[in-house]
Amino acid sequence: MDAAVQARAESSWALAQKIWSWAEPGYQEKRSAALLADTLEAAGFKVERGVARIPTAFIATLGTGQPVLGILGEFDALPGLAQDAVPFRKPLAGSGYGHACGHHLFGVASATACLALAEPLKKGTIKGTLRFYGCPAEEGGSAKAFMVRAGLFNDCDAVLHWHPSSRNVAGDLPSLARVAVKFRFHGTSAHAAAAPEKGRSALEAVALTNHAVALLREHTPDFTRIHHVITDGGGSPNVVPDFSEVYYYVRHPKSEIVRGLYARVVKCAQAGALATETKLEIFPEGGIVEMLPNSALAAVCQVNLERLNDLRYDAEEEKFAARIQTTLETPPPLDSLRRVERAGGSGGTGSTDVGDVSWVVPTAGFTAACWVPGTSAHSWQAVAAGGTTIGRKGMLLAARTLAASAWDLFTDPKLLTAAKAEHRERLAGRKYQPLIEPGQEPPLEYRNPPQRRSAEGQ
């Protein structure tokens, strides 16, 4: 398996560089999704595009029968983080999006592992079904939750995934459940100096909402996280804004707590509208549940990650990394990338829609060091490193680890038996309850600018 991945190193890096340069927003990754789907299709995978009513979601399948193993791949970028592949802040012109979470590496490494497994599957050396899941819009779009709802994982025996990081870590940290919502307020515009009494400010409705939520924070359970950005606050100080929008995330380690918190945040927005005599529109943008870890699967990934980790920087990479580390607070030594850590049992602070997958099928993953040690995700430093050979080396380590781990699961039935038993034990009779609303459609336009509309006719 390792040789099969290594043989694809150049072609895989070329794919990753293209996706890095395109840096497409969630649900709009047309070129990135097509590139991965076409590559797998050319290798003999049967590709089903536009699954779960999402144009950029797809499944690529090879083989037949049991077991059915899934490997997840992502490819969306983040807004406001366009960055050149240099060790200093240098935004790129264009859309403003950048791969600050390394999803250009994520999708390609997962696809590369599938391509390496294709030949032994075709020859019958290993038996079963392999699926690559092309998963868009992980960054706030909750695409996997909609894919789970569509039943796309129902017959899987296990699912593997990984994620770029500045560390090598085997296993999944517990993650925070999260709901995303946009509150849009519609008021009445007026001259802010000559006729302020005729105006009803949508911006003041946002301000009151934010103030109410700030007061609410004191009265929420421990480990709650509520954060927001104002995506539209008006155009000119001398015009009472007739439209304003605020975008909220509500998080907690338990999804049932998030449900209650979300209802309270909605009341804050309703109060803002009532006090300002504006009209409130609520746009839920999906929710994701917490991760359900699987130690049995994580152990398989750990053995392979430790065995295969050969990450070393050459002289140019060390120079690049040293420059990056001057922009970081108390970074660890560069040789820390040679270690493999184990995911601890304490709660994580991020959220991922992989959590939804983990509730319906045994799921496990790992992180590989694709960024300079000490680098935070969602930073220009992550974008920069991800466009260099530092990112390439971590990506290939991930592909090798995924391929080796999938091989083990295909060839040793006891591993899957243990993973399924642990999954049942962790569920403890509980059923998966998604945080997306019943009948909710995927928010395909969630990365688009808000549409300004006047209060008249609302």
Could you walk me through the main structural features you see in this protein, from its secondary elements to its overall organization?
The protein is α/β, with parallel strands linked by helices. It has two domains: 2-175 and 291-427, Aminopeptidase; 177-288, Alpha-Beta Plaits. Helix content is 38%, strand content 18%. The strands form two sheets. An eight-stranded mixed β-sheet has the order 1-2-4-3-5-12-6-11, with helices on both faces. It has a four-stranded antiparallel β-sheet with strand order 8-9-7-10. The model is unreliable at 454-458 (pLDDT under 50).
Offer a quick outline of the entry.
By secondary structure, the protein is α/β, with parallel strands linked by helices. The protein has 13 helices and twelve strands.
**Tertiary shape:** globular
Quickly give the CATH architecture of the largest domain. Answer: 3-Layer(aba) Sandwich
**Portion of residues within helices:** 25-40%
Radius of gyration: 23 Å
The CATH superfamily of the largest domain appears as Zn peptidases
Counting helices, strands and paired strands, the structural category is alpha/beta
Question: Number of DSSP strands?
Answer: 12
CATH topology of the largest domain, by name, is Aminopeptidase
User: What is the CATH domain class of the largest domain?
Assistant: Alpha Beta
What's the N-to-C terminus distance?
Answer: 60 Å
Order of helices and strands: HHHEEEHEHEEEHEEHEHHEHEHHH
Number of domains: 2
